[in-house]
Amino acid sequence: MNPTLNITSVEELLNFSATSPSDTRLLLQHVLQKNHAWIKTHLDAPLTTHQHHQFVQSQRQLAQGVPLAYILEEKAFYKHLWHITPDVLIPRPETEHLIEWALERMHLTQNGHLIELGTGSGIIAISLQAEKPRWTIWASDLSSAALSIAQTNAKRCLAPSQPTPFWYQSNWWQNIPPQTFDGIVSNPPYIAQNDPHLLQGSLPHEPQIALTPGPTGTEALEHLISTSFERLKPGGWLLLEHGFDQGSWCQNIFKTIGFRQVETRQDLAGLDRMTGGYR
Q: Which residues pair with 278 in a beta bridge?
């Protein structure tokens, strides 16, 4: 029997929920649409029948393995809180390293033109735009649902006075106007189709098209490396996130295509996580 079924107040729910204290608090904040400070100072606040039902349903989803970010429809990443749905990947800390690396390159010039391919929820393009308002940033995705979420996040995370990325629905370069760029970034799908990791954790609930490009897991990476060179200005750079075991493979393809100063960087766990190079 679920002990939360007869609970009628905030305090009772916090004390008797079978969910972990941190998850209980976040679910409760989501259901009540209140922040942590309000919860702490309104422990005796009653729960309506609807609020109680919402909490129990959310708790059941969590028990069934639905990621908390999808239940809350938001996830903290980098410097913002992002709107997230099952149409897009859940942001992961490793991608913050890709943003930092791109900013290192962008700091070298006051302005320029950058594109993110496969933007998903827009976390990379919008984060870069917030830090570099003088840069013109384009972002693309094959999914119209993902682009809609990205546009929502731009309104949510950028001030009205700040420029916003230009959005394109495109299968990689297919619908992108003929333009060369100072920088190209992407966190493409890179997990092999039959990789057992796809059955673990949150991955079964996330959009598979954003996780796996095909049998080897390298199809999207190879396509982007081979097609991006001609879309870069001389001295322009390409930065890609990839799997922990794909660093050497990416380096070889970068060098074969003709990129210079090819480098692989690691994440906080010391694993190869992104590779880049200059035209």
A: 237, 260
Instruction: Give strand pairing partners of 237.
Output: 183, 278
Question: Residue 234, class by beta-carbon neighbours within 10 Å (0-12 exposed, 13-18 middle, 19+ buried)?
Answer: exposed
pLDDT in tens, 165-182: 999 999 999 999 999 999
Helix (H/G/I), strand (E/B), else coil: 120: coil
pLDDT in tens, 5-53: 555 677 777 777 767 888 888 888 888 888 888 888 888 888 888 888 8
Give the residue extent of every domain in the chain. 3-64, 85-278
Domain over 85-278 is classified CATH 1.10.760.10: no
Question: What pTM does this model have?
Answer: 0.90
Closest CA to 175 of 212, 196, 147, 206: 147
- Residue 271 CA to residue 266 CA, distance in Å, equals 5
